[in-house]
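Write out the 3D structure for:
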Amino acid sequence: MANNEIKSSKHREIAEKIISNQIGAASPVVSPDGSQVAYVVTRVDYKANKYRSQVWLARTDGSQRPRPLTAGEKRDGNPSWSPDGTWLAFTSGRSEKKGETTLHVMPIGSSGEIRMIATMPDGIGSVRWSPDGKQIAFTSRTQDERYTKDDESSMSPRKIETFFTRLNGEDFVFDRPQHIYIVPSDGTAAPRNITPGQHEHSGPSWLLDSSGVVTSGALHETWDNDLANDLHIVKLDGTVTTLTDQRGVYYVPSVSPDGTRIAFIGSDDPLTSPQNDHVGVLEIKTKKREWVSRALDRTFSPTSGAIAPIWRDEKTLIAYAEDRGTAHVVQVDATGKIAPKWLTSGRRIIKSFNAIGSAENATVAFVASEVNQLTELLVLTESGEKRLSNLSALLIAESAPQTWEHFTVQCGSTYSGGPNEIDVWMMKPRDFDSTRKYPMLLNVHGGPHTQYGETYFDEAQMQAAGGFVVVMSNPRGSSGREQAWGQAILGRKHPVAPGTGWGDADVKDVLAVLDGALAKYPFIDGNRVGMLGGSYGGYMATMLAGCHGDRFKAICSERAVNNMLSEEWTSDIGTVFRVEHGPNHLEDEAEYVRMSPIRHVRNINVPMLIIHSENDLRCPINQAEELFMALRILGKDVTFYRFPGETHELSRSGSPIHRVQRAEIILDFFTEKLAN
């Protein structure tokens, strides 16, 4: 066997062990009496090239081992308790018809059979019982009649009148908008759409008297231009009352225990992004709203996704927020007079939470991951914190995870919005030998308003297992910090908070991280440094290749934005980039060209690996094609892989086989290019 084939086989084995053993907890929901937690366990079925998920149940006191409630062969999920705790609703992909999702209820604590109460042709989410227990609200997409056709050649043409008609991972959405449906919890009637029409609704939260729900949605005519998103009361007869004034972005509503107020997450300026989204409270009668979490300058819409604040009692809310590479549960005063208080701590990232309780006693269930631990279920009560699951055991036995070392470096240029330092993480190669020199891989995350940090990250683990020192950081533009940090790279002509624009302070910070790592760790070989990133990280990869390629021996640019101008009219979120850059591409074409890495293509002399998915709608594949064609014309060292059937989410939720192949390609590339 040739040497390169041996290495390839080794890299495939590394990727298969890490990816095939991935399993994690999600979507915890605490029973009304606080004694149990239902949650979802998702695992990779590598042989079948699928993901399996099932609903599990755990005692919050840890007195019994958690047990599965469903078989999990058909992607079960979205558990939701009835108000009296005797029934649990959940969704499943058990239908034989492709795309259909079913809604079921099962008895808890008594005998009885699982009942199917609804079948929907296009998914079910956000399952919520009414306070009186008689009805269940959920979201589902309502399909145009064209979707009843057997093939596209029989479909009627689509009339396009707005932006945002397609969505990465979903394809066309404007002709299958997400609506709120109501179904009797005993299954005695078919689901009923209470929000029909062209506009979408999400996040139902029941009114106290079960007469309707509060939703979020953009129902006004100019929604695709002003980008505002409002809160609404939708009665069961379909009557809609809008509670906000089309001046902000307000979402994930949560009705208070007395039914008079609504907590939510959001911000007041739809045309400036990023912002640190905060917890707000709105009084239903007066429609007066106020922000109650601003004493903590962190985003309450973390990288893992926003969750509706939970009312612990009439005075207190429970939410979660990011903090410099971590994410934790936070207690928020509903009046905003008391500063938010962290309820959890430590080097980990909490990815979802749920709570039930009162001022005297509360049970908070959450799922969290650490660098050497997959996402596990934990519970926090007045007596302390307890871990309830042990899903990581097999992965640890098969491929012992490495740990991070955290350090900071000074920003690459002047910053006055907060601490002038960048959070950085370094992971040593597996079987580290302090007498050796190792190649290094410098990773840059996407977003840019997301964060790396204290969580299990399969990318880093595979790179370390492949023999590389792994370095990751949160340069300016990232989340997890004060709002000024995220806004530092807004466009130079942004009307609200002008910054340096992309490709300036962020590039300087990444280079400062590189210099800091090389100075701190003598075992890193400064002549064998590779760099990689996806999405905005791919943008940074191409920019670094064109402007600072002499610092690297090889670069991988994945699902990248390479041409900011063409991205504006091909992306599923085209026209949105003005909220970051200021002017749109028609008002200032030159500014979009200036920030585009593709304009530096003639200066790229470092070997390039391009990876892209053919069904990526966020950064469409023309972004990769533009870069590849230019490099090929110029006679540069470039390799291009296209993944069929995959979207922008290939590395996170693509097919397991494709994820393994992708990891093998990356490890092979850097092993070859960074060899001694």
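The chain has a mean pLDDT of 96.
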